[in-house]
Amino acid sequence: MSIVIDKKEYDESKFSITLRNYIVARQEIEQGKVRHEVELEKIQVLTEYYNGKIAELVKKENVQPEKK
Q1: What is the mean pLDDT of the chain?
Q2: Dihedrals phi, psi of 2, to nearest 5 degrees
Q3: How far apart are CA 16 and CA 45, in angstroms?
């Protein structure tokens, strides 16, 4: 199997175990990064949803801000 590193193609079967492990570790880090980005997008969507719900209920319940 071949792998591309810095735009150069290498035969992965010639890699040492250590080099293969480094490559796997980097791939896992990149996958984790993508998972975190997806989670942040979900958090943003849910935050906007609940902000809207809060604004609706404040208006519906006619809650007034405190006077200082």
Answers
A1: 96
A2: -110, 155
A3: 44
- Return the half-sphere exposure (C-beta side, CA atoms, 13 A cut-off) of residue 10: 14
d(CA 47, CA 51): 6
The amino acid sitting at 13 is S
Tokens read off for 29:
């880090």
Q: Is the dihedral of CA 52, 57, 59, 64 positive or negative?
A: negative
Phi and psi (nearest 5°) for 11? -85, 110
pTM of the model: 0.69
2 contacts 12 by C-beta, under 8 angstroms: yes
Whether 37 contacts 44, CB under 8 Å: no
pLDDT tens, position by position, 11-32: 999 999 999 999 999 999 999 9
Q: Token pair 């604004």 is at which residue?
A: 55
